[in-house]
Amino acid sequence: MNETTSVQRKKPTNLTMGRGDYNQHSVESKIRRTCCQKILEYFRMIRFSLRALTYNSFTSKSIVLDTAMEPIFWIVDRLSRKIGPIMVVLVVVLTTYVVSFFYIILLPYLWNRGQFGVITFHWFFGHWLLVNIVFHYYKGVTTPPGEPPQILSDTNVATICKRCVGPKPPRTHHCSVCNHCILKMDHHCPWLNNCVGHFNHRYFMLFCIYMWLGTLYVCISVWDIFAEEFFDAKKTFYSFFSGGLLLKTIEVYKATQTNGTTLSPETVEKLKNMGGLSFSDGMYHKVVCLEFFLCIGVMIALGALTAWHARLICRGETSVEKHINDDERKRLKKVNVIYKNPYDFGARENWRIFLGLGEGRSFIRHIIFPSSHVPLGSGLSWPHSLVHAKEP
């Protein structure tokens, strides 16, 4: 009985201790939850404060992405300043190579076949293209794109650039590579090592058009020579693999199978002569193929770029304004408002303004042939199609 009683008396003691442990655990859980709630509350307050300080109705995902990519843009800008001169030298070297091909290979090729009429055509048409390409590229590289004046009263309507803290007329944007604002900025072109703006935009576009025509013209002109060289499978194989370890191994194996372990003098000479092609024939083959593939590659890439800029000109906007106008269309569409580009006067009129055809200038004299005429307007103010719309 005494033992049973003692056991029964111990049970309330154990229960009381279990309740104490449970209460302590509950208190610790409440403290942890309270701390987590406070940390979460502080985090929400910080996030709300940042959003309140940085809130703007024009803020979008693209702006946030641009801000996050700012370090990469900084690297690209610094790199563009360094590689710009290299790109200009590369354009000059490649253009010289293509032109030299015409004089050294194409014209003698046509002369030997008695195609004097074709030679005459190449002489005039080819040199007309060459003069336009060289002229517009030189002017695009050396012509300043235009900068706004630093006196605010000299501009019509302006805001202040947040980077260079200077007046910013309409259609003016800051170039991070040149580190100053550009009138009617389109983009910074590394191939020109210059910004494309109000005063050299026409030179850039006409250079692209004439260069594209030039590459198309070269591809058509050299097609016969290219077909003779490239579609000769044996010549192409020996030309591109000549001097290689694989080809020499094959030649040695074939020779040893025929003559035993010794090589005949003819085989030795064949190995020296690039696998059946002389050095001059192999170089001739490579030069012809390089000429064609270089021109067709540039024609495709430059054709896409030229078509893109031609579309922008038809719409009366620059590359920078294209993105701004797209964002405006999306923003105003949410409130059932249709956005219209104020500088769009229709494709025909946009091209006339872009080419500077006014004040007695003609298309043949000032576009077909090289011309240094300045664009219409000063680049500080622009007519609006919304204001100058014709009455029906």
Structural class label: mainly alpha
Mean pLDDT: 81
Mass-distribution shape? flat
In percent, how helical is the residue content? 55-70%
What is Rg?
A: 36 Å
Intertermini distance: 117 Å
Summed up, the helix count is 13
Give the DSSP E fraction (strand runs of 2 or more residues). under 5%
- Overall number of strands: 6
Low-confidence stretches: 1-17, 387-392
- What's the helix-strand series? HHHHEEEEEEHHHHHHHHH
Written overview of the protein:
With 392 residues, the protein is mainly alpha-helical. It has 13 helices and six strands. The strands form three sheets. A two-stranded antiparallel ribbon has the order 1-2. A two-stranded antiparallel sheet has the order 3-4. It has a two-stranded antiparallel ribbon with strand order 5-6. β5 and β6 (194-196) form a beta hairpin. α3 (70-112) packs antiparallel against α4 (116-142), α4 (116-142) packs antiparallel against α5 (201-221) and α5 (201-221) packs across α10. The longest helix is centred in the first third of the chain and has 53 residues, at 2-54. The termini are far apart. Mean pLDDT is 81; it is low at 1-17 and 387-392.
